[in-house]
Amino acid sequence: MAKKKVYIDLGHEGDLKGMDPGAVGNGLKECNVVLEIGKYIKDMLGEYENVEIKFSRLGDKNFSLEQRTNEANVWGADLYLSIHINAGGGIGFESYIYPGAGAKTQAFQNAVHSKIIGKKVFTKDRGKKRANFHVLRESKMAAMLTENGFIDNKTDAAILKSRSKLILIAAGHVEGVAEFLGLKKKPESKPTSSNSEKLYKVQVGAFSDKGNADNLAAELKKKGYQTYIVQE
Ligand SMILES: [Zn+2]
């Protein structure tokens, strides 16, 4: 089965000179907030099989709207998901699809919108809307855009400053995409409760002289590390 391709467009460019930071308010910049959400999405969507993800950016980057939709179109994405933070005096969450979008895109919007609202992070559901935005119009695949709260609203800004809330917002996006595409979790990905049982081994040195190995082991033991020597 061909892998599904999901293009995640993290809105705006970045926090550096000459870049578009997006909306600004309450000590927050949109470019940074959506980047953090995007990094959680990357981890969470990575737990599913038969899916490939491409990000418009995973850092600060000059990248026009046209470059974004071109990239997604050339790549042959199945879905285009653009993530933004609102501004201009309002509160809550809303999502957008293109005015002329068909049933498939509506179903995509329904899935993602309801999963995000279901996380109960936002105090208001502003609804599923339609708008003639470049990224919705020029992308060839089912495309939607989320506006995750208002950066210039105190209540929403407090949400956007909370790491745990951003993780929930990311999870809503991922669960919506997974439901719409019918994605399944990779068999080896276990619930977080059992992750603590994973064992990570760290090797600090390899020596041909056993005496040197013993010395390093003694040094580490002194510092409180559990050590053992393995002959290979
Ligand atoms: Zn924006």
Task: Quickly describe the structure.
The protein has about 230 residues and is α/β, with parallel strands linked by helices. The chain is about 35% helix and about 20% strand.
Task: Describe this structure as you would to a colleague.
With 232 residues, this protein is of the alpha/beta class. It has a single domain, classed as Aminopeptidase (3-Layer(aba) Sandwich), CATH 3.40.630.40. 37% of the residues lie in helices and 19% in strands. It contains seven helices and eight strands, in the order βββαβαββαβαβααα. It has a six-stranded mixed sheet, sandwiched between helices. A two-stranded antiparallel sheet has the order 2-3. Helix 1 crosses helix 6 and helix 3 packs antiparallel against helix 6. The chain is elongated and about 75 Å long. The model has no long low-confidence stretch (mean pLDDT 91).
